[in-house]
Input
Amino acid sequence: LTQERYRVQRLPFSTVSKEDLAAFERIVPGRVVTDPEELEASNVDWLRTFRGCSKVLLRPRTTEEVSRILRHCHERNLAVNPQGGNTGMVGGSVPVFDEIILSTALMNQVISFQSVSGILVCQAGCILEELNRYLEEQDFIMPLDLGAKGSCHIGGNVATNAGGLRFLRYGSLRGTVLGLEVVLADGAVLNCLTSLRKDNTGYDLKQLFIGSEGTLGVITAVSILCPPKPEAVNVALFGCPGFAEVLKTFSTCKGMLGEILSAFEFMDAECMQLVRHHLHLASPVQESPFYVLVETSGSSAGHDADKLSGFLERVLGSGLVTEGSVAADQRKAKMLWALRERITEALSRDGYVYKYDISLPVERLYDIVTDLRARLGPSAKHVVGYGHLGDGNLHLNVIAEAFSASLLAALEPYVYEWTAGQQGSVSAEHGLGFKKKDVLGYSKPPAAVQVMQRLKALLDPKGILNPYKTLPTRA
Ligand code: FAD
Ligand code: MLT
Ligand code: ZN
Output
């Protein structure tokens, strides 16, 4: 069996037998899904670019059940695809062939929350938005936020080391995740679910699993440090006449808003047009070459408002921004955020999307967009740039009516070579999954790739966990 389009051959794993199904039924009674219609949504990724043909999906509720499932799969040499909310952008969350889908959807319990330290411990299948809602009731928030919050699971966020919209303020999950419980490929439970801020006892094993995309173990529970809910949140959208002005606005923002700055996102005019056209969202800011969304989060409304008005005066007066709209209430703040958060959705409605998620020196962040527009000409419907400018993370997306091999050849390896030429990263936050596994070498030296392969062989000697993903096909 070969996935022709991706030139990948099925590895010699076993196929699920009647006896396997009976064993699964004993471990997770009534939670073994084999109905093809029910399986369909879990076999296809969010971007609808990849489709597997798994015939079994398992829905454990406990770590013990995950452990028994993996012990069985390990003994029988059955391949397993861990799946959270299936919102991943690189085809890591769906099977390539007939891997068993191990869903965390029913592992959705909060285990504990300490209201002085702000440390939350929960099962991996908790939905990000629900965790945030739970915390808000206790005057805390999650340290991460992303457009997929309504579906993605915290386990999936940790497995992809998701960045998102609050990264600028609260940093990486590599800092905020304090502990993990993970089930290894052979079913052994690795309990590193500590809730300590400081713990220098030997190697920090949880870091191996953060960003490992389901290839080293199944994350079953997460301990995470959550910040207090800010008293005052302001959101503003600005129009900028050029990218140089976007950069200067960012510098001014850091200088003048300092400790209260909590997001600095940008999008270009084509993004805004697509959001307006496909989602019928209205922008309060007139047509501009660029837009920036600025958010502040602080503890004193009056203090923040003063700072923000000083900043507005400066950027409007100096012509860095041509127009601005500040949200006066939560409803408008949500509306402004929607213009940015829903870009992904708007682009997907427009056609086939070639998606690149790269880290670059911020000064050069937009050059590749301009360069590609000239290079591709009319063969692309749109070439757009948006993303987490404050983190040096560009989302470069090229849209065409349908997939075309010649357009792909014009894009790759060009985009990756361009990125490597800037000492950038070919995956800033989405991971490598199935789509990008073979481009790891553009951002990591061969010795690093070899160590990764040795770690994989050590933790998953039979290679049953999320095969065909993250690591290059060949060393
Ligand atoms: P899935 O998609 O189900 O899985 C992703 C990967 O993690 C797969 O390789 C899977 O095998 C593995 N995995 C899942 N759960 C586990 C587990 N418990 N144990 C081990 N492995 C597991 N990403 C960003 O970084 N920043 C963004 O701003 C952002 N915005 C997004 C906006 C939209 C609209 C969408 C659709 C996606 C966005 N993403 C973003 C992509 C991002 O990777 C995911 O949304 C999210 O982190 C994945 O969580 P999930 O539960 O959906 O995982
Ligand atoms: C975003 O920032 O909107 C996400 O990472 C998704 C995307 O890149 O489209
Ligand atoms: Zn992003």
Observations:
- The two ends are 23 Å apart (CA to CA).
- Residues 46, 81-89, 92-93, 104, 124, 146-148, 152-153, 155-157, 159-160, 162-165, 213-214, 218-219, 344, 429-430, 433, 466, 469 surround flavin-adenine dinucleotide (ligand 1) (CB under 6 Å).
- The chain has 17 helices and 18 strands.
- Residues 301-317 form the longest helix (17 residues).
